[in-house]
Design brief:
Elements: E1 11-13, E2 19-21, E3 29-30, E4 41-44, E5 47-50, E6 60-63, E7 77-81, H1 96-99, H2 113-122, E8 127-130, H3 139-151, E9 155-160, H4 166-172, E10 178-182, H5 188-195, H6 199-212, E11 216-223, H7 231-245, E12 251-255, H8 270-283, E13 288-291, E14 301-302, E15 309-314, E16 317-321, E17 323-324, E18 327-328
Parallel strand pairs: 7-8, 8-9, 9-10, 10-11, 11-12, 12-13
Antiparallel strand pairs: 1-2, 2-3, 4-5, 6-7, 14-15, 15-16, 17-18
Bound molecules: iron/sulfur cluster.
Iron/sulfur cluster is lined by residues 21, 23-24, 26-28, 36-38, 41, 87, 137.
């Protein structure tokens, strides 16, 4: 595409006159006329362009529980969008029709940052989610939208795999309020074989977000039968979480369904999710949920102080909310999150 090109941030030229994109740890070397692995960063006449800037594949107004975020503005609606492309190569991607498409292979709108804010205001949402594919790859647009959103009191949310360069993330998350980060497994073997990325960079992003920013963080692990659902792996993951993030980060274990290149693996049995939840609770994580299944019990937020049920949910809706000004209505202890 040649019209409306937006010059990218985070790149330089190397000694071979190729462009090195430094937005994510893949550090693609991009020759003239080529795009990076994510399909939305293009070398054109020696300049790197963010081809995904302002090119959502569409907009949706979702319940915020669908992201999933359970401790951030529960019961509210969130304007959601993503673009074509992705910087990961997940063989189980559930949005592969867009994440594996180039901009000109899928329907894409042409909008500017103010248009997104106008749509959010029109739909009276409290927040905007950069989601569906990994928003890291359209980081320039995330920055512009989140800056404007903050000015008008609308919150912004990243739904991401967390595969991002240390310098780029500082700018991209500067005006972000919350993130749901996929912790897709706890072995580098899984990360490399099934996502073409690496575990350590993801862990580094999660620690940075949790400990060095004000971004509210929740984690999601999609459990895939036989690939990342062993008791040992889940125990190691939970031990790492407790040691590095503390016990207050909500963790969502969600069900896989056959998709993209993993069509030969069955849907995750509910009992696998319940077992993972039990392990996490026994390890001391306070808020653990199961997702992509219809089970009310495993979606309840319980007070870690008095044990009473605080938020009852059903398939992305909130039935009751007994958190008042961020505290348990019954015993008055603080519940972590933004309510
Ligand atoms: S953002 Fe895209 S082009 Fe840049 S390094 Fe990552 S995959 Fe490559």
């Amino acid at each position: 595409m040649t019209e409306n090109l937006h010059i990218a941030k985070w790149w330089h030229k190397n000694e071979n006159h190729k462009i090195v994109c430094t937005l994510c740890p893949r550090y693609c070397e991009i020759s003239e006329g080529q795009k990076g692995f994510c399909y939305v960063r293009e070398n054109k006449d020696g300049i790197l362009y963010s081809v995904g800037y302002g090119r959502p594949t569409g907009f949706a107004v979702d319940p915020i529980e669908k992201k999933p975020l359970f401790h951030f503005l529960p019961g509210s609606k969130i304007l959601s969008f993503g673009t074509a492309g992705c910087n990961l190569g997940c063989k189980f991607c559930q949005n592969w029709h867009t994440s594996k498409a180039k901009i000109d292979e899928t329907y894409s709108l042409q909008v500017n940052a103010q248009d997104v804010i106008d749509i959010a205001i029109k739909h009276n949402v409290k927040s905007i989610a950069f989601t569906y594919n990994d928003p890291t790859i359209f980081g320039e647009f995330v920055i512009d939208v989140s800056k404007l959103a903050r000015k008008v009191g609308i919150k912004t949310v990243m739904v991401t795999a967390g595969y991002i360069d240390k310098e780029a993330r500082k700018e991209i998350y500067e005006n972000i309020d919350a993130a749901n980060v996929d912790l897709k497994a706890f072995t580098d073997e899984f990360y490399f074989k099934y996502t073409y990325s690496h575990l350590n960079e993801i862990l580094d992003t999660i620690i940075w977000l949790k400990n060095e920013t004000n971004v509210w963080v929740e984690l999601t692990t999609l459990l895939i039968p036989g690939l990342n659902d062993s008791q040992t792996e889940i125990e190691q993951m939970c031990d790492w979480i407790i040691e590095n993030l503390g016990d207050t980060t909500p963790h969502h274990f969600t069900a896989f369904h056959p998709a993209f290149k993993l069509n030969d693996i069955c849907r995750t049995p509910e009992k696998t999710l319940f077992k993972a939840r039990d392990i996490a609770i026994k390890k001391g994580i306070k808020y653990v949920y199961c997702g992509n299944i219809s089970d009310e019990e495993s979606s309840i937020t319980y007070c870690p102080g008095c044990g009473k049920s605080l938020i009852r949910r059903g398939w992305h809706s909130v039935y009751t909310n007994n958190i008042i000004e961020g505290k348990c209505k019954y015993c008055n202890i603080k519940i972590e999150g933004e309510f």
